[in-house]
Specification:
By secondary structure, the protein is α/β, with parallel strands linked by helices. It contains 7 helices and 9 strands. A hairpin with a 2-residue loop joins strand 7 and strand 8. It starts with 6 loop residues before the first strand and ends in a 6-residue tail after the last helix.
Length: 212
Amino acid sequence: MPHMLKIAGLVLAGGQGRRMHYADKAFMEIDHKPCIEWVTTRLEQQCASIAISANGNAQRFDAWNYPVLADTYFDVGPLAGLLSGLEWAEAAGFDALLSVPVDTPFIPHDLVGTLLPAPSYAVYAEQRHSLVALWPVSQARALLTAQLASVTEQNRKQTTRVCTLANALNARAMDFSHLYPFDPFVNINTPEDLHEVRTLGQAQAGSGSRGT
């Protein structure tokens, strides 16, 4: 019998939301649902287990009943959360980890299937979405551990980039632009983005479909 891949999902919810006046993006509502609910609903359809990468009071996520993973590295951006997720996934015996930012509410139903095999990341037209990615757990964890251990003030900018890890893994770019009429990885960085995403959410609800 062929080996069936065990795939976990990681919601990256550790960003500070500076351009959103430090709002907790996980709880910004779109069509009366918090962002995290949109994301986890899609991940539950595609992943065997889910964890949330977030700092601060973990109890704010109690309603979702997923493990909440705090960063062990600091000042290295989202790679800290990704490393915590990879360590969790490796300890639990998963083969691949799908990472998705919490402010990316319209991820596709077929995201895992399209990204397989790992390593790979999503692209829409010319827009790269480095954190919407499928990572081979053990290999990525080992490389990322070494990458973050090598950070210095001189190399910090390059060493803390997600694409540095993706390039080290020879990750494939998967373009979704021929599959969807709008970017399903649109995320919320500014109040203007939130308005755009809420408009899309209302359109999805009006058409009887949640997301793409």
